[in-house]
Amino acid sequence: DIRNHRLSCAICQPSSYLSAVGTLPTTRERFKVYSIDFKEIPEELKSRLKLNHEAAIMSCIDLGTGEVTFEYVKDHSVYTVCLFLWTKAASFVSAVVAKLAKLFGFTMKTSASRNPTGNSRIERAHKSLGFLLQA
């Protein structure tokens, strides 16, 4: 195994070996874990359709089944999207999200760029959506 060799070899050994923080979510149950992100609409399309300059498409993937949902949103504000937290968590956390979580019994886990399971699936969906928006 290359990883074990790198850790034991005096020449190859890095000063610190980077690994994923925490555990990856289980994706075997339906409606259990979602990956949510925004896909920006190209500026040319926004101007042609006369959309708000902050308009985007919110995409949500059920990691258990692979089902994808796309929803048009006028902007990224909490007034437009108040049910979920995404990777821009620092600017989005609010009392509304905490109260919804308590009311509906869900827990919020924000991810950084290091979430291979969720981020890769959402980015593949964004790639397909990008091709559709270019057509």
Please characterize this protein's 3D structure.
The longest helix has 19 residues. The protein has a single domain, classed as Nucleotidyltransferase, domain 5, CATH 3.30.420.10. Strands 1-2-3 form a three-stranded antiparallel sheet, with helices on one face. Helices cover 32% and strands 15% of the residues. The protein has four helices and three strands; from the N terminus they run H-E-H-E-E-H-H. With 135 residues, it is an alpha+beta fold. Strand 2 and strand 3 form a beta hairpin.
How far is the N terminus from the C terminus?
45 Å
Low-confidence stretches: 88-92
Fill in the CATH topology: Nucleotidyltransferase, domain 5
Approximately what portion of the residues adopt beta-strand conformation?
5-15%
CATH architecture: 2-Layer Sandwich
Count, helices: 4
Number of E strands? 3
Chain-averaged pLDDT: 70
How many distinct folded domains?
1
Shape: extended
Q: Please state the structural category.
A: alpha+beta
Strand order of the largest sheet: 1-2-3
Share in helix: 25-40%
Radius of gyration: 19 Å
> What's the CATH superfamily, by name?
Ribonuclease H-like superfamily/Ribonuclease H
User: What is the element string, with H for helices and E for strands?
Assistant: HEHEEHH
